[in-house]
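The following record pairs a protein chain with its ligand, D-mannose.
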Amino acid sequence: MLEKTWRWFGPNDKISLDYLVQMGVEGVVTALHHLPIGVVWTKDEINKLKNQIEAKGLRWSVVESLPVSEDIKTKGKNYKQHIENYKISLKNLGECGVDTVCYNFMPVLDWTRTELNYTHKGGGKGLYFHFPTFVAFDVFILKRENAANDYPAEIVKEAEEIYKKMSQKEMDDLVYVIIVLTQGFVNGVIDGTVKDPKKVFLDYISTYKNIGREQLQQNLKDFIDEMVPVCEEYNVNLCIHPDDPPYPVLGMPRILGCADDIRWLRNANKSLRNGLTFCTGSLSGRRENDLPAIAAEFADAIHFVHLRNTQHLSDRSFYESGHLYGSLDMPKIVETLLREQKRRIAEGRKDIRMPFRPDHGIRLLTDLDNDIYNVGYPLIGRMRGLCEIDGLQHGIWHLL
Ligand code: DNO
């Protein structure tokens, strides 16, 4: 069965490793969160964290993330240095026995949501992406040049209505949610202390002025081609996280959002080290994506799994609907992954753990009492997801 993992944000996380043990977690998903993007992860630092995890009888299952700097994505001024540093970090991780490394190649922003307190039945609260509100942010609040041309006229109109009704505080909050709050703890480029986040953000966006889809693909391919030989030598599996949402935003390209994109990725470098984080929630942002089919087609290159469900709404809007229930066929997805695991076992492959983590969670019960958890990562809501998926996988495994 898929290894049960949990995203843990390091020693300052309010959810302790002891809690993880109580919940039946097997593997920890974490990173050296205290280090700035682009520096070398030394063996000392890696082992310090690894020893803490192992002292509790857990395994450091996946690195999420070893962040790829903007200079690597854009081939900026520190490109060469950052590529070298990334290689050394991979080598060090491999030598310390940490063999699965997640990263993403999204320009400037990592994941994007417009609201953090979408209210569910009975008062649980979760994350929401309201497309017209995002357009209002882009066109009317950020005022990115020519942004309106990127959207259908009726959506821009709806966005304008939303904007006109917003107070200054609501606008500031939206900026903070999109640029800072959902980013900081996952290695965002803009920290909460900058005076004018909108201005800094627009400056970052402008670095992509001359980088279209093909150029970004080329930069990703160059990055992968540099890393794969190191991964082969030190036994590390790289797994790119899909774009969330999985289409271009804010005038910048996004290149990992659908089956065609993943086909491109796998063809760009055929080594299995060039693998995928199969994130159901991210890929579900394009409703035409057939998640079980994507899982089946790329099964052999899936090194890490994020499971959560989504409820599609009109246009491109959606809310996060927990783990089992929603628009996605979670049993079918889990069945596909378990079949792949059986296949790997039969083939004698070594990478049979196939770690999954319950991705995000609705804030439930005591999660609502305070704001001590990172956005999207509450205790009870995620534990519910862990249990639901684990029950599901036990049932399916029994029947396979
Ligand atoms: C959000 C996460 C992402 C993810 C990175 C991986 O909740 O899924 O921030 O960790 O994109 O590099």
